[in-house]
Amino acid sequence: MNIINNLTNPIKVLVAGIGGASLGTEIIKTLICANSYKIYGCDISPYAFGHYVSDMEKTILIQSNNYVQSVISICNEEGIKYVIPGGEQPLMLLNLNRNLLELNGIILVANSPEIIGMCSDKRKTFQVLSELGVEVPWTVGVTDIKQVKDLIYPCIIKPSKGSGGSSDVYLASNKEEATLYINYLMINKKEIIVQEYVTHADGEFTVGVLSLSNGELVGSIGLKRLLNSKLSVLFNSEAGIISSGYTQGLIDDFPDIRSTAEKISKLINSRGPINIQGRIKKGKFVPFEINPRFSASTHLRTMAGFNEIDVLLKYMEFGQVSMPKQIKYGYYLRSFNEAFVAKGDIISDQMDKTILRNSEL
After folding, report:
1. Which CATH architecture has domain 138-196?
2. Mean pLDDT of all residues in 58-76
3. Residue 321 pLDDT more than 80?
C-alpha cells in the first residue's frame, strides 16, 4: 500500500492534553504540517489553547477523575485509532492503562511500557545507563537532609519522578541552598535526586531519536540550545544555568552527539520516540535527562524536515517508513502565540460531554 500524504483518506488522531505552550500544542502543529490527519483533542481545562485552534476537527473537555475512560469513549465514538499523549501526566495515565486501550482497538503512540517505566524514575534511568557503560553525571538519591555535607557543589537537585519541562529543578551552589531546595521537595513528598552540574560552556543539546516498535532505528536530529534568551532559561546565576522547557537554537548535523544519542537509544532498547538532553564534558556528550516521548521541540524538527510523529504514525498505519527529508540546517527560534476567545465561547463544565466543532467556536 502506498503511504497516503493528503487529506483524501486522513488518519484520525487524538491528542490527549492540549494546553497552550505545551507538548500537546506542538504535536498539533506537527500533525497539521503533515496534511494527512483529522486531529482531535481533549483536555481537563476549558482554557486549554488547543480547544481554540482552528485546524482541530473536534475537541472535548474531560474530567480528570475519569480520564482514561473518557479518552476511550471519544475514540470509540469518533472512530479514532491513535492517541498521542500531549504531556507527561497523560503519558503516565494512558501507559498504565495500555491494555485497556488495546482491548478497545486504540493504539498509544508512545515508547514501550518498559522504557516509559524506566525513564519515569530518573535515579533508575541513570543507574541503568551507568551499568550499560554510558558516561553520565554522578547521580545520588537523597533521603536525609544530612547528605548535603557529602555533596559536591554546584549540583542539580530535582525530583526523581516528574520534573518534565524543568519543573522543580534547582541549582545549588552550596550546602545552604541545597538544604533549602531539598527541604522544599521533601515537604512536597518528592523523591529526590542530586546530580552533578555539567557546565554549559561547550553547549547544551537536545536530540530526538526515533525507533520503530521492532527496535529499528529511523533516525535522529540534534539541536544546540540557545541559552541567551529569557524564554529558554529557567535559572541563571554565577553558579550556572538551568534551561527551561522551551527549546530553541541551532539544528545542525552534530554527528558525534547524534551517534552517542543513537547508541543510548539502542542500548536501552527504545521502541518509539525518545528525547535526550545533555551537555559536553571533556569533549563528550553526557546526558542529564531522558524522556521517553516526543519532545516539545518536535515542531522545530518538523520545520527542519524531520516530522517524527508523521513517520511513526505512517509506519503504524501502513507498515512503511517514509524516511525524513534532507534536514534544513539553521537556527529555529520560538515565541508564544495568542488567541482571542469570546466569553461565551469558553467551554463550561456543563459542556463536559459535548464535542465542539471549529464552526461552533
Report:
1. 2-Layer Sandwich (3.30)
2. 96
3. yes
**Running DSSP on this structure, what letter comes out for residue 152?**
-
Average pLDDT over residues 170-197: 97
For the question of whether the overall pTM of this predicted structure is more than 0.70, the answer is yes
Write the DSSP assignment of 177-242 as a string of letters: HHHHHHHHHHHTT--EEEEEPPPSTT-EEEEEEEE-TTS-EEEEEEEEEP-SSGGGEEEEETTEEE
For the chain, domain boundaries = 11-110+337-354, 138-196, 200-332
- The pLDDT of residue 5 is 53
CATH class of domain segment(s) 11-110+337-354: alpha beta
User: What is the C-alpha to C-alpha distance for residues 72 and 56, in angstroms, rounded to an integer?
Assistant: 19
Q: HSE of 238 in the Cβ direction (CA atoms, 13 Å)?
A: 2
Q: What radius of gyration do the chain's Cα atoms show?
A: 21
Q: Are 106 and 83 in contact (CB under 8 A)?
A: yes
Q: What whole-number distance in Å separates Cα of residue 147 and Cα of residue 142?
A: 7
Beta bridge partners of 278: 205, 287
pLDDT at position 324, please? 81
Contact between 300 and 334 (Cβ < 8 Å): yes
161 contact partners, CB below 8 Å, separation of at least 6:
120, 121, 122, 190, 191
**Superfamily holding 200-332:** ATP-grasp fold, B domain (3.30.470.20)
Grid coordinates of 70: 473518557
DSSP state for residue 56 in the 8-state scheme: -
